[in-house]
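Aim 2, interim progress: modelling of the zinc ion-bound target.
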Amino acid sequence: MAESTHFYELFQPSHYNVSLDINRATKQISGTSTITGDAKETGIAIHQKYMTISAVTADGQAVPFTFDDETEAIHIELTKTGETTLAIDFSAPLTDSMMGIYPSYYELNGEKKQLIGTQFETTAARQAFPCVDEPEAKATFDLAIKFDEHAGETIISNMPEVKTENGVHYFDTTVRMSSYLIAFAFGDMQSKLTTTKSGVQVGVFATKAHQAKELDFALDIAKRSIEFYEDFYQTPYPLPHSWQLALPDFSAGAMENWGLVTYREAYLLLDPDNTAFETKQRVATVIAHELAHQWFGDLVTMKWWDDLWLNESFANMMEYVAIDAIEPDWHIWEAFQTGEAPMALQRDATDGVQSVHVQVEDPAEIDALFDSAIVYAKGARMLVMVRALIGDDALRAGLKNYFATHHYGNATGADLWAALGTASGMDVGAIMTSWLEQPGYPVVSAQVVDGKLTIHQQQFFIGDGKDAGLQWQVPLNSNYDAAPAIFADTDATLGDYAELRQASGEPFRLNVGNNSHFIVKYDATLLQDILAHLTDLDAIAQLQLLQDLRLLAEGNQISYADIVPLLPRFAASHSAIVNDVLYGVATNLKKFVKEGTTEEQQLRALFGKLSGDQIARLGWLPKAGESNDDELTRPTILSAALYAKDDAALTAAHDIFTAHQDNLASLPAAVRVYILANEVENFGSAALFDQLLNDYRKSSDASYKADIAAALPTTPDSALVAKLIAAFEDADTIKPQDLRAWYRGVLAHKGQQAAWDWIRNDWQWLEDTVGGDMEFTTYITVTTGVFHTPERLAEFKAFFEPKLNTPGLTREITMDTKVIATRVALVEAEKDAVNAAVAQTVNG
Ligand SMILES: [Zn+2]
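Predicted structure of the complex, ligand included:
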């Protein structure tokens, strides 16, 4: 197979007539894909995967063909080039892989039911019907779908249905679009509808296993997001409707199919009467993300998968821009600082990480591109950096132009930089190239040398890294005018420090707002100055200070032992994000202690010392009228109190549990997981375990289920751990989409050995079950997140190194081996100093 040949170069489709017959009972799909297009050569290839092709005609004449799954192709010999209409008859199995066309399973009033849905990104449209399955191969589509239909069932797709004849549902012709964005679903659904100011129909669809009120929040956010984007982009929503559909089985978080966005139930539906604010924020940002794609990704699409970042980085920024506009009181950008920013900074510091923009051809490697820390989080930071540089007016003007130029077509990163460059008068491309084409990021060191304030940039690594002398064009965002706007050199001298300090009246700082993708290492003089004025800093600046120090400690540039004494200075903060990063640093100290030791007791005491006043202030239960910050801080503090084994806190939680024992789902959602975890860990029994696992099976409330999945693995009882592991492969209890969270939970607690044994023994089962989807590699990532001993490192290598050549796994295994090795070395080198600092801070 000529790997570099895209099928689109051989045959360019303009229109499809796809007719499908889907039978849930026999688990069979059959149909005909009729494709009109322009044959550039007589030997062409059309994508298919896992299909049987029974006939191919070109302009009504049978033509020779072969097909195989190796090349995922039907190879067809035509008699002429030019305009051709192909008709391909096919059949395929309906499988449970959560890719292509697949069933979701759920129960309604004790009856097992199915909802059929689709997931085509990146390369699974070819599992549903033969097509040129490449983003550039845009065409119009007529879908006609028949299924083993029962009375009362609904079918929906990208476009409205126009007629039903003889049980076949015909949908309106789509606009010109990519195959990976086609979607449909059918089954027994409920829905709620509304209309935007501009007349777009908005709807939320779900199974009837949910209460009707669970659809309301999403409907409101979807409507207002579309209204926001129509205004912000100055470009109308291009389709008649925007459906949001919750699927009970869904591998990723959500998928931006044009006009029919699909979601995990947890990311769309929520009980307005009992849902944590944090969950509402997450659901809202997921919806806003997918709806941002309706223009950026769907209307204008990347030319090839190497520019996937263009879609995802952009949508990942816009979800915050949109929610900040429609819910300004939420201060949603603060969540960006505790979510995306540290994720990107951590991962991007490991040598061997991919750059945001990467060349890619093999389908298995395309799925591995979805490195959320890089393509989503780092990419979003790049665009946040651009937005800060050029401002919203230029951003909006540039986007309007970009959509007008490329609508219903494709574009590359260079096209976006050109549009934004024209709008802003800046050479945006030149600045961004250093960030997008190079992996990693710099640490900028600021020092006072011989009285002069100097800065220096160098690539930052956690673990061994080969310094290749990379340089970045760094937007410095300093509070001192003497610092350049863009720092493109290795070194710069800013002037006489004493004079600069005198003139500005405040400590020298870089990356104010934390919008640029670099960290700062201040020398002792500068750091002491900042710490002496700590209370003058806003929440983001305080977070940034601790976050950068933590990264420097991970990278061996300073010691964790130097950070520990600083922690109490942040402990009284009323800011949720400062508390988030504070306890994030504290949690990082857990790797330095062994279970059951004096050192562990001292660390628990440190958590108690840090959280004691806050738990007294906040209490276990949400209070009416409290601030968003208090509501968001409480869970962080409760988690700390549980680790501290604070007797009063544990008893208080136990009492709340007892009061709600008959209806645990009714516990306030914001704190429910901690009350359940406390009960399982400290007051648990086999009866409680069974009660919770049974609730997990029966409940359709995704947030309650997630709480149970987080609480049960805290059990110290090895017999109960074994029961959990036995449920891992029982899809009636734990759906494959939720298994990774369970696995991680057990691995991070007393059941570590059992979970680790399970994944090694049953790797083949795991690969067979979820190996086909893009989330597969994250099982390795979450394992890596937990391991920190030489024994586990050796076992990890022994198990994964033989799998190094598995397509799609190579980079993850290489990176993760390095991550664990670095952590093990850090623990060995630092544990004595860190534990001494903890003891001194507790007792001092
Ligand atoms: Zn996305």
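The longest strand covers residues 11-23. Residues 256, 289, 293, 312, 315 surround zinc ion (CB under 6 Å).
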